[in-house]
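User: Hi! I'm working on a homework problem where we have to compare a predicted structure to a textbook description. Could you give me the structure for the chain below?
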Amino acid sequence: MSASQPTLGNSTSSVLGRRLGGELTKLRTASGLTQTHAAKTLTSSITKITKMERGWVPMRDPDIRALCELYGVHDPGVVGRLLELARVDRERRKAKGWWDDYTIPGVMQEYVALESAATSIKAWQCAFIPGLLQTPEYVRALREHPAAKMTKSPEPDEKFVATRLARQRRLSGELPLSLRVVIYEAALRNFPGNAATARGQIEELAKMADLPSLTLRVFPFGAGMHSGLNGSFNIISFAAPGAMDVVYAEAPFTQRWMEGGEASAAYDEMFEMIAERSLNEGESVSFLHKLRKEL
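Assistant: Happy to help. Predicted structure tokens:
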């Protein structure tokens, strides 16, 4: 699905809203009912049902419960996950966070807001150091590299650096983000900037590996080929594993959201396969220390 955040009048389609709407649409279709049946149950218009299923508007708990009853969904676990997804979506829509003080372009504004609301993230990165783990020197060097000119944010460099550092606060505090990261060896060798930048970034990665909230692994060249080499992706979770996952995937000149349950499950399976073939945590830190000495 497109990474854009379309608008309709005063309504905004959010990633979580589209995920929730998609789940309700699947349940309605499976029950053999139409939007007309749903509209009658909620004593509303078909237009409202359309907006709900497309993620245009936040959803009320009574409406979700009524639709689940209509569609024959009585499993408390299923209903509970839908209600939790609706709650997080409502909070996301009204949230005013630190990111409002920064000029964050395009899809990244939605991503940063979701990152702030997430409980856990699984990240596979085959080209760059993940944003949550980048040093200021790495960010500056990356911004100055010729390859970044065509996609560079108009935000001043130092403010962009400050944005990255603000994101890293999620890794500490009372309710830290649980982050599992696998980095391809190429991302650890093809550094922007000079050797000092590379050494500083690798040293910082080794230090951050001690954080209780972070699991860091390295996928070495010797581990072979796999489908994840087609591009980097992040799996963002908001409750129990798999319950409300959405996937953010990157490609040259574009970013995409995968919001369906089957799509997120496929990416999760791929991530676990990559992690299983990677160096374990201790081996990964040893790899980082060895690599730093080589630079």
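For your comparison, note the following. Confidence is low (pLDDT under 50) at residues 1-11. The longest strand covers residues 178-184. Good luck with the assignment!
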